[in-house]
């Protein structure tokens, strides 16, 4: 349990720590394209560079070796010739040394060593050249091979007079004078030039690779921009369109994929705009119709209403049946009028034509005003309206007083009608952001599930119960719409036999959402009792 | 208040519906008033000039000419009380009527008693029309109560009787805050009408006439969330 809870938290922490780059990566297509291009190009070029410099290096070394061996063979032939001319080896060897080494010193590409195989019977000829090669510099393994009458070569490092080391290729061959001690001839080729050439080539390769990577990234940036810019434009256009600027369209340029996207987007936008315009038309027609019906119905109804009132006022002078008819006409006209008014109000909501007109209002005053207005009805039913839980200090809120009064009137009238003579309690609480009013009765209450259904149009708590309240069945539906128009809540609570409670919660600043209510919906009497 | 207060008053009914006009006539006559009728908006102003009514009952939806225009024209030449009949309780419609100069409105369908109460309240002779001289002052505005004259920097301001009553009610208790409900009771004479739009629109109309800058009122001040009050008496002196 704790692990399961800990893992996502750790992950969230990691994501937060990576923060900016991760977000950039996820958000920007350009960053991803450029980064991927860079990574790929870098890997490919590194591999290519390594392989290439390896091969060039090897072929350079091979060429050097071939050249060295050829040089050594030539030198060997020359030396053999001098020795074979029959002169005394003690004079012939210096001749060899002179014959070979000047070439070397002239060209400075190699130096020649003549070493006696038996150091006790012979003088080593070591050149005093730039390399400063010593007899000890020739590796023992190479000497061993040469002593066994083999021509051989070896790579090694020598110490220069300056104290540094140089890589050299030493080619050795046995030099056998007709008599006397046998000698070994060693050609020492410094490898500096090869190495500097190789280094040069590597540098060039690296420079080329870097230039190529930069070029590729530039290409990637340009390509990405070419793709991303229209996509971003499309996104901006789409969000403007979504925000209600229905005339917003994309530029169509050329005939590429992006142009196709733009065309498709524009087609979609056109279709949507048309559809929205049609719905708006419908809504306008509906509103117009509502207004017309309102006017057309209300004018004759006014006449009927006035005529009925005149008849009603004079009912005492009629025979009983006519007098009763006048009474029925009067009371049913009241119902008819209420129903018509409610239907028109509901249709106004259905047509989205309801307009909220907020002004700073003292909600306490509104509540007390509504309670005053319902006093006569309550007295007639023997119901007391208990407002002891309503503060007497002003509670200002930006609301539409007409609608809020209507909601409250509805709740109070309902409570009075269902309270069966028991008191109705009205409570008001406010905090910084919201104001809540609760109307509580102790009537038959609500069955489970009815708390939401009470707001349905024409819903009745008990269909078998005779309707004597004169309500239209639309009051709570309108109240709910009124509350929603304010961005507020209207909720019901109830239990069979324990009565019901309705709570209205409104934001004190118009347009702010209601997040918490300063007053519980459920029965506080129990809580108050326990306290 | 007795019937004789307003007995014999002439009421011009501007309505295109013959049945409703006739019924209105029956109800008005029952109160002892004398109705006159005109069915066409285009002829309404001429009929007003001919009949010299004490009050106009004006239906906002008229053939020939919009009731709003008729209302504006009548108000342009007379301060006679105008009560409009509207089929729509929509705020825009009601406010439009009040802004063009109507004193009150009744939404169809209305009860005869309601209409009669509104008409009587507008016809009633005002209790403040006493002969005793009374001079009031709010900022730059001077009010001669019995003479029904309002002066502002030497110039007379034409107010309708209702606007005059509203100004006087505020001026009589300088500094006191009036809720809209109290104003409805004192100025309109309504006990259980909770229509704040009536007060709001009339305050706006009054401001448009008496204020230097209606956006920054100094005569009729708003007390946020409560109501209105008169500006300080010496505002002009303090400024000048």
Commentary on this structure:
- The complex is a heterodimer of chains A (531) and B (240).
- Chain A contains twelve helices and eleven strands.
- Chain A is 57% helix and 15% strand.
- The C terminus of chain B is likely disordered.
- Chain B is built from nine helices and twelve strands.
- Chain B is globular, with a radius of gyration of 18 Å.
- In chain B, the strands form three sheets. Chain B has a five-stranded parallel β-sheet with strand order 2-1-3-4-5, with helices on both faces. In chain B, strands 6-7-8-9 form a four-stranded antiparallel β-sheet, covered by helices on one side. In chain B, strands 10-12-11 form a three-stranded antiparallel β-sheet.
- At the A-B interface, helix 6, strand 5, helix 8 and helix 9 of A face helix 1 and helix 8 of B.
Question: SSE layout and pairings?
Answer:
The complex is a heterodimer of chains A (531) and B (240).
Chain A: H1 2-27, H2 29-84, H3 89-107, E1 111-116, H4 140-147, E2 152-159, E3 165-175, E4 183-190, H5 192-242, H6 257-313, H7 320-350, E5 359-362, H8 363-380, E6 385-389, E7 396-399, H9 401-418, E8 424-430, E9 434-441, H10 450-453, H11 475-485, E10 489-495, E11 499-507, H12 525-530
Parallel strand pairs in A: 6-8
Antiparallel strand pairs in A: 1-4, 2-3, 3-4, 5-7, 8-9, 9-11, 10-11
Helix pairs in contact in A: 2-3, 2-5, 5-6, 6-7, 7-11, 8-9, 9-11
Chain B: E1 10-14, H1 18-30, E2 34-38, H2 41-51, E3 55-59, H3 67-77, E4 82-86, H4 91-99, E5 104-107, H5 112-123, E6 135-138, E7 141-144, E8 149-152, E9 155-157, H6 161-172, E10 178-179, H7 180-188, H8 196-210, E11 220-223, E12 227-230, H9 235-239
Parallel strand pairs in B: 1-2, 1-3, 3-4, 4-5
Antiparallel strand pairs in B: 6-7, 7-8, 8-9, 10-12, 11-12
């Amino acid at each position: 349990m704790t692990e399961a809870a800990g893992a996502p938290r750790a992950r969230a922490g990691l994501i937060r720590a990576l923060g900016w780059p991760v977000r950039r990566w996820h958000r920007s297509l350009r960053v991803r394209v450029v980064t991927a291009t860079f990574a790929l190009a870098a890997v490919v070029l590194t591999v290519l560079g390594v392989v290439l410099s390896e091969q060039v290096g090897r072929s350079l070394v091979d060429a050097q070796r071939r050249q060295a061996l050829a040089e050594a063979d030539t030198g060997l032939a020359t030396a053999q010739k001098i020795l074979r001319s029959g002169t005394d080896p003690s004079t012939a060897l210096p001749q060899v040394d002179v014959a070979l080494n000047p070439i070397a010193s002239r060209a400075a590409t190699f130096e020649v060593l003549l070493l006696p195989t038996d150091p006790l019977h012979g003088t080593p000829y070591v050149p005093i050249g730039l390399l400063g090669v010593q007899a000890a510099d020739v590796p023992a393994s190479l000497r061993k091979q040469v002593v066994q009458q083999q021509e051989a070569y070896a790579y090694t490092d020598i110490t220069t007079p300056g104290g540094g080391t140089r890589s050299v290729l030493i080619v050795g061959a046995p030099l056998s004078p007709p008599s006397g001690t046998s000698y070994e001839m060693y050609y020492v080729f410094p490898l500096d030039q090869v190495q500097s050439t190789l280094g040069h080539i590597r540098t060039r390769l690296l420079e080329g690779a870097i230039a190529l990577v930069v070029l590729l990234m530039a290409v990637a940036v340009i390509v990405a921009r070419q793709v991303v810019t229209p996509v971003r434009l499309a996104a901006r256009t789409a969000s403007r369109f979504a925000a209600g600027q229905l005339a917003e369209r994309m530029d169509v340029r050329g005939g590429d994929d992006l142009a196709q996207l733009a065309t498709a987007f524009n087609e979609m936008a056109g279709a949507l705009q048309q559809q929205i315009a049609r719905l708006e038309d419908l809504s306008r027609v509906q509103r117009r119709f509502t207004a017309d019906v309102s006017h057309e119905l209300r004018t004759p109804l006014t006449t009927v209403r006035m005529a009925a009132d005149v008849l009603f006022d004079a009912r005492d002078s009629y025979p009983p049946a006519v007098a009763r008819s006048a009474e029925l006409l009067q009371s049913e006209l009241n119902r008819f009028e209420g129903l018509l008014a409610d239907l028109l109000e509901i249709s106004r909501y259905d047509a989205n034509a309801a307009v909220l007109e907020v002004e700073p209002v003292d909600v306490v005053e509104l509540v007390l005003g509504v309670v005053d207005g319902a006093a006569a009805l309550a007295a007639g039913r023997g119901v007391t309206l208990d407002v002891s839980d309503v503060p007497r200090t002003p509670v200002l809120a930006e609301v539409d007083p007409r609608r809020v009064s209507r909601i409250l009137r509805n709740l109070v009238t309902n409570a009075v009608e269902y309270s069966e003579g028991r008191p109705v309690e009205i409570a008001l609480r406010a905090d910084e952001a919201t104001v809540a009013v609760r109307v509580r009765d102790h009537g038959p209450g609500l069955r489970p599930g009815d708390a939401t259904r009470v707001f349905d149009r024409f819903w009745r708590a008990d269909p078998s119960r005779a309707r004597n309240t004169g309500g239209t069945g639309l009051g709570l539906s309108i109240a709910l719409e009124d509350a929603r128009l304010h961005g507020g809540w209207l909720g019901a609570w109830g239990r069979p036999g324990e009565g019901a409670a309705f709570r209205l919660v409104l934001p004190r600043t118009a347009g702010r959402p209601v997040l918490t209510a300063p007053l519980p919906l459920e029965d506080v009497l129990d809580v108050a009792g326990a306290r | 208040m007795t019937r004789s207060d307003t007995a014999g008053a002439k009421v011009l009914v501007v309505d295109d519906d013959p049945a409703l006009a006739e019924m209105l006539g029956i109800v008005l006559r029952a109160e002892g008033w004398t109705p006159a009728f005109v069915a066409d908006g285009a002829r309404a102003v001429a009929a007003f000039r001919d009949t010299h009514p004490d009050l106009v009952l004006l239906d906002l939806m008229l053939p020939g000419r919009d009731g709003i225009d008729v209302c504006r024209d009548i108000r342009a030449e007379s301060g006679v009380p105008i009560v409009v009949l509207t089929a729509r309780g929509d705020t825009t419609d009601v406010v439009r009527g009040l802004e063009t100069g109507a004193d009150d409105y009744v939404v169809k369908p209305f009860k005869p008693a309601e209409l009669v109460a509104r008409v009587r309240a507008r016809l009633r002779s005002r209790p403040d029309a006493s002969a005793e001289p009374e001079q009031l002052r709010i900022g730059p505005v001077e009010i001669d109560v019995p003479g029904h004259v309002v002066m502002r920097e030497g110039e007379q301001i034409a107010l309708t009787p209702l606007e005059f009553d509203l100004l006087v009610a505020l001026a009589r208790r300088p500094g006191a805050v009036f809720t809209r409900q109290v104003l409805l009771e004192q100025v309109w004479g309504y006990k259980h009408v909770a229509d704040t739009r009536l007060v709001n629109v009339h305050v706006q109309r009054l401001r448009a006439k008496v204020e230097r800058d209606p956006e920054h009122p100094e005569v009729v001040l708003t007390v946020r969330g409560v109501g209105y009050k008169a500006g300080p008496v010496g505002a002009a002196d303090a400024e000048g």
